[in-house]
Amino acid sequence: MNELNLDDDSFIISDDVWGNAKRNLIDRFKLSSKFDICNNLIKDFEAINTKWKYKSDFEVFIRESKLEDFISANGETIFVSTIHKAKGKEFDHVFLLLENFDAREDEKKRLLYVAMTRAKQNLTIHLNGNYLDKLKTEKLERVENNNTFQPPSGLALHLSHKDLNLGYFEYVQKRVDTLTSGDSITVSDEGCKNEKGEFVLKFSKKFLERLGKIQESGFELKEAKVNFIVHWIDNDKKIEVKIVLPELHFEKIRM
């Protein structure tokens, strides 16, 4: 939208403006780990609007789109979500993890129904209860696994805005503007830094407590990357800032 650079009284996007915006987008973000998602969104809009491209239509198309709609069919992206956040969405394959889930209450039964109906092709349920033992349906396969598994050798965390000091971003916008999804950033005790050693984000107090517990359990924070850069509105100060949502990678410490 920024590359289109349209005036308020411009309604139709000409082919020249559209093509130039696409070229600028490629030049700026071709190395971004999220570039394919953005490119697929543009291709879908072009397929629907073959003759005329209206600015208002493009704005609505972006706002009403979901991220998973533009993941390549041959991709290996895994969405990790709570049941509540998955409501209203659908996925080809769903892996449902129900550890010590209590399905006796009506509210929990409805929640379980929501979770199971997110799958379009395959549903795999991992549970340690017997409340689905009487369930019968076509192509249902039951597997009992009594193996004892070793702890993982690594962990990956995708941080949300709740894990970050949001107020700090107001002071580092120029540093954030130089980053794209997939960029490596250096981890420290307080947050993450760019290649110049400047902080681009700081962890929240709550996440620092969580980080300490992870490290106490034998994991060492090894690396971080930019996952998403999103726009956040500070209602108190009436300003909009870009914030960096990182993904953190841990390795098990060998004793």
UniProtKB/TrEMBL annotation:
Task: Provide this UniProt record's keywords sorted from A to Z.
Answer: ATP-binding, Helicase, Hydrolase, Nucleotide-binding
Organism of derivation: Olivibacter ginsenosidimutans
**Domain UvrD-like helicase C-terminal per the UniProt entry, residue ranges:** 40-127
Q: Which InterPro entries match?
A: DNA_helicase_UvrD-like_C, DNA_helicase_UvrD/REP, P-loop_NTPase
What is the protein name for this chain?
DNA 3'-5' helicase II
Q: Does the keyword Hydrolase apply?
A: yes
Keyword flag Transmembrane: no
Q: Which domain of life is it from?
A: Bacteria
